[in-house]
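[job 4471] stage=fold_predict status=RUNNING
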Amino acid sequence: MNTHKITAIASMIMISLTWISCASDKQTSDDMAVEQVDNETFQKLITEGNGILLDVRTEEEITNGVILEPKKIDFSSADFSEQLDRLPKDSEIYVYCAVGGRSGKTAELLKEKGFKKIYNLRGGYEEWKKEGYPVNE
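[job 4471] inference complete, writing structure tokens
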């Protein structure tokens, strides 16, 4: 075989491997999505879905009420990351905080930890309550 054919075949193999690698990276990032959702979508997800509702506010904030019956993990707790590790990675996670900042950070952390589907409530509990959605006080 001449060197031009060998070079051409080697180039085609490298291009194919690069394409396959990029395609699988894209699939992985698409599979691990964080969605910012509004109140209406969040309500539908938590009532019709089969995931975990996660409240990351402090105990003091939680005394003002919660959405349904969430799993409570205080964002400021020393073992916050370890507590997230105990959640089943194959579950959908519906996360909220007071106004959306801490839950947004939590959603990104969950994504880094390998969770596949995370929904963050845009505007958080305060917006939820202000808009008249149901709360447990």
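[job 4471] summary: Confidence is low (pLDDT under 50) at residues 16-30.
[job 4471] exit 0
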